[in-house]
Amino acid sequence: MSGYLVNFMIYTLAMVGIIFLALFIYKKTAVMPGGKSRSKFLGVEDVMSLTPRKNLYVVRAGNERFLIASDMERTTLISKLENNTQEENIPVVNTPSVDDLPDITNYSARKKAVMKEMAKKINF
Question: What b/e string do you get for 53-89 counting C-beta neighbours within 10 Å, with b at 16 or more?
Fold first, then answer.
């Protein structure tokens, strides 16, 4: 009788170990849900939330960058962005709206105007 109990415990622990090993391997190889993939070719450089369900994305594909608008119904390519030789340190703002853009002091006046114009073009 005790032999059956010992065998049951050994097989149960082995199966639990296999399940935990499979879960560990899955977590190490799976793509993260926040878009943190391991791709060096594609990447989202910046996101600007215009309203809770409308966003502007700057997407990098190789050496090219694109401005993309997204809402619940569709995703639209707005334009291909030029490569700038000088980088500006612009802090990431999580959830601004179009009305909040003039209040952001770290954006240059040109960038505020361009973002407002883009938002108007796509009727956001």
Answer: ebbbbebeeeeebebbbbeeeeeeeeeeeeeeeeeee
Query: What average pLDDT does the segment 62-85 reach?
Result: 85
Nearest to 46 by CA among 93, 108, 114: 93
For the chain, the farthest-separated pair of C-alpha atoms sits apart, in whole angstroms, at 82
Q: What is the pTM of this model?
A: 0.40
Distance CA 76, CA 69 (A): 5
For residue 87, what are its two tokens?
């980088």
Delimit the domains of the chain by residue range.
1-30, 42-82+93-121
| Mean pLDDT score across all residues of the chain | 78
Contacts of 79 (CB under 8 A, 6+ apart): 66, 67
Query: What tokens were used for 12?
Result: 């149960």
Contact between 21 and 13 under an 8 Å Cβ cutoff? The reply is no
